[in-house]
Specification:
By secondary structure, the chain is mainly alpha-helical. The protein contains 24 helices and no strands.
């Protein structure tokens, strides 16, 4: 194992301590606004759009965005931008423009509760359980990486990092509820940017600027210039054909996985649900789209710099690309170490403390988002719905706090699973394919097809999930076929989506639908257009209206795709 220990000085520890003091202070301050369960779980639906918009992005700035994307940037280069420009922005805009009116307008407290209203208890229970499991697994990813970083950078035992991080998240969510998580996520967003921007700029200076980076990457005989262009991204998708690669990225990542994650994942949707009105709820993901499209420049680029600047990563990438697993393992590093190696080699004291605080902020933001969404679903959708329906409101707030504590403890154990993957994106994309892709199929079909039945809702979910798991297992464990890169995750997600749609359509033909009168606010054709917008919206300036801002964001992301193609 290569030593990535950093020479942290008192100034670095002081910066880290100051950050944690702010985190605890925010949690304690938010306690004043928690007097009932809606305030604990949904911030009383009172927050302005700019707060929920930044929290929407920060909640996703966990292990996936920081370590996973820098690792994938080191491995594949600029095609990793697809996770943002194809695999996020369009779906976020769709959520704001089309789907938030249904979520917010129906006054549901969670995404699974929307499923119950549309499809009944069968689909609701399947969705609630699968979501709860997924959040515990993904919280483990954030916690595992955080403990590993503390160990490798500062020398603290891994168990110390696990317990401390879990304890901090447990404190501020238990005390301040979702408001504490959201306001800390806004703070963490700025800390993360303050950490990654200097790292990127100093790293670029070390390799001779953008031109120096592109020359070094292009000079790699094994990979050539393919990693300097976002399209067709064959290494990322795992397809040899440029046409199949583009189709795989657009359909697998850009449609199924992206829309499945951003439009149905309660971790994200919960932030928008905490908004003060319908327009703010719709603006939440749209506001988030603007920083989202530029974040890859301070996440992916550092990974690419590491792959040409840091000797251990240069050797690892060369051996891994050549298929020499033994030699690659002998280097003592993996792609997940990309960001840490660059921090070790280029950051001076002071900035080092900011960078460490930024990484801790990222993982805590990600974990807190998973835990706050989990405690809502565990309390409202599982406990209240199936265990104790008519308890006093304070009882459900108490259950939420107990669920928070349980989730933090369980995440310590699920962290062990995450440590088995050399590139965390492989693990996370597989999870998204299992849980989010079939859910999106059920949602989109049920929202636009009033004939779809409650039985079809849960049957499609189960069949889609089993299809994704089966396809993934047949490749991973049984070697029936092989797809390198992210191809397996894309194909599994598309299979889950397709199977869910087919099973839902077939089952609908033989089962009874819900009465049309019960579908108002849940199905597009049965909801008055006036109910989908705030009547005051037309009087707002264009930059406060969802549709104009969504069109501007879409235009910008199209330009970025063209410039870096």
């Amino acid at each position: 194992m290569v030593d990535i220990r950093l020479d942290a000085q008192w100034i670095d520890y002081a910066i880290i301590a100051l950050y944690f003091a702010f985190v605890l202070g925010v949690g304690w301050y938010a306690k004043r606004g928690v007097s009932n369960s809606i305030e604990f779980f949904l911030s009383g639906r009172s927050l302005p759009a700019w707060v929920t918009g930044l929290a929407f992005i920060s909640a996703n700035l966990g292990a996936v965005e920081i370590m996973g994307m820098s690792a994938t940037g080191a491995q594949y280069g600029l095609p990793t931008m697809h996770y943002f420009w194809v695999g996020a922005i369009p779906a976020m805009l769709f959520l704001g423009v089309v789907m938030m009116p249904f979520y917010y307008g129906s006054k549901v407290r969670s995404v699974p509760e929307f499923m119950r209203m549309r499809f009944g208890t069968g689909a609701h229970l399947v969705n609630s359980l699968s979501f709860a499991v997924a959040q515990l697994l993904i919280a483990g990813v954030n916690l595992s990486l955080l403990a590993t970083i503390v160990n490798r950078l500062l020398g603290w035992p891994i168990w110390v990092g696990l317990v401390l991080a879990a304890a901090f998240v447990l404190f501020y969510i238990t005390v301040g509820g979702l408001s504490a998580a959201i306001y800390n996520e806004v703070l963490q967003f700025f800390v993360i940017v303050a950490a990654l921007l200097p790292l990127t700029l100093i790293g670029l200076h070390r390799v001779g600027g953008w031109q120096g980076l592109t020359e070094r990457v292009a000079g790699d005989g094994m990979l050539g210039s393919e990693q300097l262009h976002t399209w067709p991204g064959e290494q990322l998708s795992g397809f040899d054909s440029p046409v199949l690669s583009v189709v795989g990225i657009v359909l697998g990542l850009g449609f199924v996985q992206s829309f499945g994650y951003w439009t149905t994942n309660f971790v994200e949707v919960q932030r928008a649900m905490a908004s003060k009105d319908l327009t703010a709820a719709r603006m939440t993901p749209i506001i988030g789209a603007f920083p989202k499209m530029f974040i890859p420049f301070i996440v992916i680029i550092p990974g690419m710099i590491t792959a040409v600047l840091v000797n251990e990563m240069v050797d690892f990438k060369q051996y891994a690309s050549a298929g020499d697993a033994e030699a690659a393992a002998a280097t003592g590093v993996t792609y997940n170490d990309a960001l840490l190696l660059l921090m070790r080699d280029v950051l001076p004291n002071g900035l080092l403390g900011v960078a460490i605080a930024g990484l801790l902020a990222a993982f805590m933001a990600g974990m807190a988002a998973n835990i706050s969404a989990f405690n809502t679903v565990a309390s409202y959708d599982l406990y209240q719905q199936y265990v104790k329906k008519d308890a006093p409101d304070a009882h459900y707030t108490f259950v939420g706090r107990v669920a928070t504590a349980a989730a933090c403890v369980i995440a310590i154990f699920t962290a062990l699973i995450a440590g088995q993957f050399s590139n965390l994106m492989d693990y996370l994309q597989a999870l998204f394919g299992f849980f989010n892709a079939p859910l999106f199929a059920t949602f989109i079909l049920g929202m636009f097809w009033k004939r779809m039945t409650p039985t079809a809702g849960w049957a499609g979910l189960v069949a889609g999930t089993l299809a994704a798991v089966g396809l993934w297992a047949s490749s991973t464990f049984f070697g029936v076929f092989e797809l390198p890169g992210q191809g397996l995750a894309f194909v599994s997600a598309f299979a889950a989506f397709a199977v869910d749609i087919v099973v839902s359509v077939v089952v609908t033909q033989f089962t009874a639908p819900k009465p049309v009168l019960e579908l108002k606010g849940l199905v597009y054709s049965e909801t008055a257009k006036a109910d989908l917008v705030d009547p005051e919206e037309k009087n707002l300036a264009f930059y406060r209206r969802p549709v104009p801002m969504a069109l501007i964001a879409l235009g910008l992301v199209v330009i970025l795709n063209i410039v870096f193609a």
